[in-house]
Every structure is written in structure tokens, then in C-alpha cells.
Amino acid sequence: MAYSGTYVPINRSKYQGNPDNIVYRSLWERHCFRWLDQNADVVSWSSEETVVIYYFPIDKRTHRYFVDLKYTTKDGRTFLIEVKPAKETVKPKKVEKSARYVKESVTYIRNQCKWEAATKFAEDNGWTFHVWTEVELVKLGIMPKPLKPINKLPALKALRKPSSRKQ
Fold first, then answer.
1. Which CATH topology does 5-160 take?
2. 105-148 confidence digits (pLDDT tens)
């Protein structure tokens, strides 16, 4: 289930765009927004304000790609960031006659086309492009480390075992 909503910035002047219309499309994006908004090293940021044109070979057409994040640091560096689940950054495993495999393959190809165009666009402007997955978000301290699912904790499993005594 994807979570979405409107982010209300604390530092409105840092946002490059309409600070009353900042939409996050996942909790991961919301974590990123909060990090950018409150990070003293970030002087400006935006969400889906940067457009990159890319070619998609499956339909043989060009499309517009709205990059998730753009931010600039105090030292003048600018970054374009795409926030994606790690599973969408790797080529899907082939499963014969699977509609799911076809869908995941098309998504993977589309993402690769977008990211190749974004990398070139960023380089042409003296910027850097990155894809942040849940792994990078935790490593960078943007998102807290996820807790183990409750049913995986040994102590709680022991509590759930049915009692051997009869009542």
C-alpha cells in the first residue's frame, strides 16, 4: 500500500516551487522531504519540479520524467534523486508465461531509460543523479532502520506457542 499526502515544510523559503503543494507519494519520500527541509547543509530543494525528456524503446516515443527530488547544498553541489524500492532497480527474474514478469520487465526498462536520461541531464548541468532505495535511505540516516516484523522475533514466537497443558 502506498502512502501519499501533502508535506508542510518548516523552512518554506528553502523550497523551490509552491510550498503549499508539496505532494509525497510514499512514506520514503516523506522521510526525504523532512530530511531536506531540516538539513542545515541543504540550501534549496524541490520535488517533481525538474523534468527530463527520455526515449522509451518499447513504444518508440519520448516521454517526460518528473524527477522525485532536486536539492542544492551549501557547497554548491546539486543532486537529482529518484526514490524507488530496491526491487525496481534490479532486472526481474524470468518466470515462463508470467504477466507479472512482463510488467516488471517493462517497469525495469522504463526506469533504466529514465535514469540514463537523468544521469546525462545532470552531468550536462554539472549535477549528480542518484537512485535512493530503502537501503540508501537507512544508510544515509534519512529513514530509521526498519524493525523486524513481530512474527520474526524469537521472544514473541515463544509467547505464541500453544500451551501444552489442558484446561
1. Trna Endonuclease; Chain: A, domain 1 (3.40.1350)
2. 999 999 999 999 999 999 999 999 999 999 999 999 999 887 65
84 among known catalytic residues: yes
> Is the CB of residue 27 less than 8 Å from the CB of residue 142?
no
Q: Answer for the pair 118, 128: CB distance below 8 angstroms, yes or no.
A: no
Each residue's pLDDT tens digit, 10-60: 999 999 999 999 999 999 999 999 999 999 999 999 999 999 999 999 999
Catalytic residue among 14, 29, 37, 70: 29
pTM: 0.82
Rounded to 5°, angle at Cα 74 from 72 and 77: 45
Here the cell at position 13 is 523559503
29 is catalytic: yes
Distance, in Å, from the CA atom of 87 to the CA atom of 37, rounded to the nearest integer, reads 27
CA dihedral 126, 39, 7, 116 (to 10 degrees): 30
Confirm if 35 and 69 have CB atoms less than 8 A apart.
Answer: no
Among 14, 37, 68, 104, the active-site one is: 68
State yes or no: is 48 an active-site residue: no
Q: Which of 14, 37, 82, 84 is catalytic?
A: 84
